[in-house]
Amino acid sequence: MSGLILKLGPKERILINQAVVENGDRRARLTILSPNANILRLRDAINPETANTPVRRACYATQLVLTGDHNPDEAKFQLLRRIEELSQVFTDPDSRANLSRASEALLSDNFYQSLKALRTLLPREDRLFAHGSG
Predict the structure, then answer these.
(1) pTM for this structure?
(2) How far is the CA of 60 from the CAs of 2, 6, 11, 52, in angstroms?
(3) Sequence spans of domains, the chain
(4) How far is residue 104 CA from its own chain's centroid?
(5) Nearest CA to 117 among 79, 72, 88, 89?
(6) Considering Cα of 99, then 103, then 104, then 109, what sign does the dihedral take?
(7) How far apart are the C-alpha atoms of 27 and 10, rounded to whole Å?
């Protein structure tokens, strides 16, 4: 059996196709078998107020598709353009690989995997901003 496996902590909430699901008092493991389900861990959600950097804005825009607040077809073009812009800044091989994964996922309409790949760039972006302001 294949699919997306989610391991949830007690009382952890996730959004699945615009429905908020809360885990019970114990850890749980869920397997999402539907290939096109839109899933977002609410603990990982980016608030609009904190979408204040290029990577955070790309993550937030991807997140809006997963929450059903943005049209996937319209978002795809915008996100691919943002990823191209990010590739001008993140030139190391690991970052490029993550940007490539994000693009490939978008082209396959897999917004969850795209968000997952983009989120890997957040610590690097934080370091770049910290270094630039120091």
Answers:
(1) 0.86
(2) 28, 21, 24, 10
(3) 4-42, 46-133
(4) 13
(5) 79
(6) positive
(7) 5
Query: How far is CA 6 from its chain centroid?
Result: 15
DSSP 72-101: HHHHHHHHHHHHHHHHTT--SHHHHHHHHH
114 vs 92: CA distance, rounded Å:
19
Using DSSP, state whether 54 is helix, strand or coil. Answer: helix
What pLDDT is stored for residue 58 in this prediction? 96
The Cα–Cα gap between 8 and 22 comes to: 9
Tell me the C-alpha distance between 22 and 91, whole Å. 39
Hey, what are 49's tokens? 């107020």
Distance linking the first and last C-alpha atoms of the chain: 50
Neighbours of 8 (CB within 10 A): 19
Rounded to whole angstroms, how far apart are CA atoms 102 and 26?
32
In DSSP terms, which residues pair with 4 in a beta bridge? 32
> Reduced to 3 states, what is the DSSP secondary structure of residue 124?
helix
- Alpha-carbon distance of 40 to 18, in angstroms, equals 9
Reported as a single tens digit per residue, the pLDDT across 30-59 is: 998 887 788 898 988 999 999 999 999 999
